[in-house]
Amino acid sequence: MQPGFFRTLSTRLLQPCKSAVRHPSLIGPVLRGTEIGSVLKQHLAIHLQEPMTNTLEPSPDLINFTCQAIDAHSHACFRLGYLYDLCLRMRPEKVVETGVHHGVSTAFILNALKQTGGRLYSIDLPNVKYQTDNQSRQDDVLLGAEPGFLVPQHLRVNWELLIGDSRQLLPTLLRSIGPIDIFHHDSMHTYEHMKFEFEAVWPHLRDGGLLLSDDVDWSRAFEDFCSARKLNYRIRKGVGIAPKNIRHSSSYSKGSLTESRNKGS
What we know:
Blueprint: H1 5-22, H2 27-31, H3 36-49, H4 62-73, H5 82-90, E1 94-98, H6 104-116, E2 119-124, E3 129-131, E4 136-138, E5 159-163, H7 166-177, E6 180-185, H8 191-201, E7 205-213, H9 221-228, E8 234-236, E9 239-243, E10 251-253, E11 256-258
Helix pairs in contact: 1-3, 4-5, 5-6, 7-8
């Protein structure tokens, strides 16, 4: 039996079945053996179209709010839904993400930006192998599909997708678009690559902007980066959260946030 058998079984059979249990409208497509990419699109569309009521407690502290949002979505079908809540709160003008994959994080960010304005810039490689310091794997759902294939067409108006290696594209992009409000890392999770992206982005992040990193427990890159700069940061359910130059007063206007605690440059 090949090593990837159980992972493939989970992707092609178990995950669609779990989705159908939560959403009866998906039972028919799953039972008919509808292609997994199509089922994923239908599943995500349900969450993007549902009225999203904000049940989070108001918090003047950006880190605490982000942790609340992560907790609120941790048992949902798509845990990256917290990015929707966060973008509604911060109302960013410019968001940059690396690692688009299917496009779940992209879709939730764009769903918020459709309401608030702003633009998302995404960088990813086609049919990428997701690599850590110890291993790499290929997601068979992406074979033959473009990064972000789940993102609905009506949300793409505020989106620019750049195909290529972030080590080449990210510095050029940051120089061309000016200061950014949010950076979300979810590309290659090796120590050196994560460190490169954080160091490239930090000078271009606005005071009060937010550095986010998924899967920070895969290496110490995020903790080492923040500790070296004495940043006020938090790790919540594998997500690294580091605001830039947060001040003690608490206010936010579009494109400029100042709020609570330590400064880190």
